[in-house]
Amino acid sequence: MINKELEVFNEIAKALLTDEVENPISEVIPPNELHGKLSIELNEDAIPDPVFEKALKEIILKTPKTSSKLFFNQLFGGRQPKAVLGELLSVLLNNSMYTYKVGGPQVGVEKEIIKKSGELIEYGDNFGGTFAAGGSMSNFMAILMARDRADKGAIDKGVTKPLTAYTSAASHYSIPKNAAFAGIGRDQVRYIPTDKHGRMIPAELGKAIKEDIEAGNLPFFINATAGTTVLGAFDQIEAIADISEAHNIWLHVDGAYCGSVIFSEKYRHLIAGVNRANSFNYNAHKMLGVPLSCSVLLVKDKGDLYKSFSKEAAYLYQTDHEFDEFNLGKTSLQCGRRNDALKLWTLWKSVGRKGLGEVVNQQFHLADVTRDYLRANADKYSLYSFDDSISVCFNYKGVDPKELCTRLYEDNELLVGFGSFNGETFVRFVTINANNTDKEILNFFKVLEKTAEKMVKEQLVEV
Ligand SMILES: *Cc1c(COP(=O)(O)O)cnc(C)c1O
Q: Which atom of ligand 1 lies at the shortest distance from residue 295's CA?
């Protein structure tokens, strides 16, 4: 029976949600003090329930609160209640998504998301898709499909050709990691320079491909990014697709960060041309506020998914042969796979595609509010990023951004990170939490300025 635990869950959840408002920042515990301050240690003997519950509650309340109004540190934040509901139920159901026999209607739920997502990007009649364990793994699946198309023997014999991959200098670090996993090699990745907005320069891409062909290499994979990790820039997909089509190279669009713009009528133009890509992914756990992880991978020709990921297994695939496409294990990276679909479905079902679009629009609105504030206070701030991005990068004049972010963290004030581009380092403020309003943005600056002014004063004293 789990009734008792559900009661405990409700009690701890209530305490957490109250604490999130009253103490949005959990007091920082240095790693070497964890065992002294919290009852983390595991022992030989059972303990009484009240002792257990107290220990658990303390650990929960001391954990960083990623849904609070002062968390701006990551490319996710906030929570959509309807999505949390779906996640909690998928934990209780505990299905695995590999077969229809075990997943049942949940397979239909996943397939419906893939279908509607593919229709949104006008992917034609033959697309397929899957859920991967995250954006890095979606990118991994894309590079594997590209490899298997360019080097037909690779799947059985290992890579036999000098394959080369292309991605922008501002793209995610999973691209070289995945090149290593795929047996391509990290040295076979070419980093294409970006313009001042952080977008890949298509002419430089064309040049790099020509050089590789002349050197006897086989260009096989181009990664374009929809929302780069630091500046939140969108590569120009149409121009990149012209090059990939001219050379018959697989084009993947990494939309882990901002691919969810597909839901917004106002902002989907930022990924115009995505219908020409061979594969595309978006992380619903970033822009859409769905709990981690929720990464959707779409593939224009579903045959590519089967070619790279299908493997017969008599002990697993025992039924539903006439509906084999409902056996999702034939197109996934994993064997046992948790249900990441239901939490996106519960949200989408309740608010509709238009509601998801509003979540996206709110983030761009908050980024506009942020840029307006920085421009209005140009005496104090320098701004590094550009319109149409939800990452707003800036510096408080005279204060080192790394020291500022660290100080805000150590003083339990707020959580925000820094990033670098073209040799400049700055605070990277991300307006990903669509639960926020203009008020929370202005409060962020109030809290930040208190610490920044303190640091300026201290510097004056030191000098
Ligand atoms: C976050 C991110 C990823 C990685 O996604 P995970 O779900 O964290 O693995 C990949 N690419 C980009 C552009 C990202 O922002």
A: 7
